[in-house]
């Protein structure tokens, strides 16, 4: 899961979707802008919410903090 300086990588939360974060076989790339960071994104395949690689990293850090 990547996040470069100019691209935001999005993954679907639906485990059965082609763009699923659980499969990690496909992701959607969009320009990294303030608007794209704040806007909700919907999967073009199944209509479920998309999460960014930044969201996933924050979740991992938060989970680690709670466990400690």
Based on CA atoms alone, the radius of gyration comes out at 12 Å
Largest sheet: 3 strands, antiparallel
Distance between the termini: 24 Å
Helix content: 25-40%
Helix/strand order, N-terminal first:
EEHEH
β-strand number: 3
Mean pLDDT: 77
The number of helical segments is: 2
Structural class: alpha+beta
What does this structure look like?
- There is one protein chain.
- The chain has helices spanning 34-38, 53-67, and strands at 7-12, 28-31, 50-52.
- With 68 residues, the protein is of the alpha+beta class.
- The chain has one domain (7-67).
- It has a three-stranded antiparallel beta sheet with strand order 2-1-3.
- The chain is globular and about 25 Å long.
- The chain starts with 6 loop residues before the first strand and ends with a helix.
- The mean pLDDT is 77.
What characteristics describe this protein?
single chain; 68 residues; alpha+beta; three-stranded antiparallel beta sheet; 2 helices; 3 strands; 29% helix; globular
Write the layout of secondary structure elements.
Elements: E1 7-12, E2 28-31, H1 34-38, E3 50-52, H2 53-67
Antiparallel strand pairs: 1-2, 1-3
Short précis:
By secondary structure, the protein is of the alpha+beta class. The protein has helices at 34-38, 53-67; strands spanning 7-12, 28-31, 50-52. It has one domain.
């Amino acid at each position: 899961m990547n996040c470069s300086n100019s691209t935001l990588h999005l993954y679907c939360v639906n485990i059965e979707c082609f763009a699923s974060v659980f499969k990690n076989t496909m992701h959607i790339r969009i320009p990294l802008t303030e608007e794209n960071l704040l806007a909700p994104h919907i999967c073009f395949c199944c209509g479920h919410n998309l999460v960014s690689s930044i969201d996933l990293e924050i979740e991992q850090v938060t989970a680690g903090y709670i466990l400690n």
